[in-house]
Amino acid sequence: MRSPYPLPHLFFLFISLILLLAFIHIGILSIAFEKLGLSQGSIFILLFLSLIGSSFNLPLFTVRSELPPMDMMMPMPFQLGGKRAPAPGRTIIAINIGGGMIPTLFSCYLIFNQGLSYSSVLITIILITGISYYFSRPIQRLGIGMPILIAPVSAALIAITINPSHSAPLAYISGTLGVLIGADLLRLKDIRKMGVPFAAIGGAGTFDGIFITGIVAVLLA
Asked: To the nearest whole percent, how much of the chain has pLDDT over 90?
């Protein structure tokens, strides 16, 4: 049966749908960052740096681990500081620039520029850290995973309860740093047991893991 639509028309329709989804995605991100007090120029710079940074991982240190099975060996993502192959029985721990480092630095910026009390920041981070640790689990071949909405919904609810007038920045900070500590740093002992040669803090990149947790938390707060 012949399609009623010519191939060029279907191709144009497909490209238009992709562009529409991209504009919606960027629009949602813009709304979230505007709630944090950023200008349009600052939003563009932050998103651009996050997108570029998502392709790079910065090695931090190595930990002892079990030897990975042969079928788990895989090429490592791009790294800064040259190519470093892990020694047998070692796992390289890195941080993803776009998905881990930039959200962490931005959280520090919000802490010192949004008029938040340090006690409220500390309480929310501790609570989200505990929640993230409880719900996160090691997943073979992938790393540490957890239900995507647990941390942002919890961060938003806790931020609204503790400081309604500054719930957006508080939700972003606690969602970002809470997941970083609870689902990444405190799970290093589980990474050791998985025998993977490489593990990156910050999920798979910009729009995953820590980054997306912070964005969703702000939208809900």
From this structure: 20
